[in-house]
Amino acid sequence: MLARSLLGFVALFAAPALAQDWVVLKGAQIERALDDRSVVYEAARQKFYASGRTLYDNGRPSWGYWAVRGDQYCSQWPPADGWACYDLAVTPDGSGVMFISQTGYETKGLFEE
Question: pTM of the full predicted structure?
C-alpha cells in the first residue's frame, strides 16, 4: 500500500492542474478528514490519532498533539507549549491533503489507504 501511496504522491505533485482543485475544509470536516488517519509526505509519515495525539516520523519519531480550533487544524509539539494553526484542503477525490500556514506556505501529502 505504501508503494501505491508513493506513486499517487508523485502524481499529486506532477499534475499542476490539481493545484486549482483543492477543497478547503471547515471545522468538523477537518476532524473527520484526519481522525485516525495517516498522511504520507515526500520524506515523512504522520498519524493523527483520535485521542488528539499525532506521530510525525521522518526517520526520527516525534510525538505531538493535534486539534481543530474553529476552521483550522492546529498542532503543538513539546517541549514548546504554543499551538500553530493551518487551513486544511483536500483534493476532490479525498486522496491528497494540503496544510496551509498563515504565511501561505503549503505542505502537501497523500492519505495512506
Answer: 0.81
**Residues 15, 22: contact at Cβ < 8 Å?**
no
DSSP reduced 3-state for 65: strand
Spatial CA neighbour of 44 closest among 55, 53, 36: 55
Half-sphere CA count of 75, side-chain side, radius 13 A: 20
Looking at residue 20, its pLDDT comes to: 56
The span from the CA of 14 to the CA of 53, in Å, is 32
**Alpha-helix residue ranges (DSSP H) falling in 15-71:** 27-34
Reported as a single tens digit per residue, the pLDDT across 69-79 is: 999 999 999 99
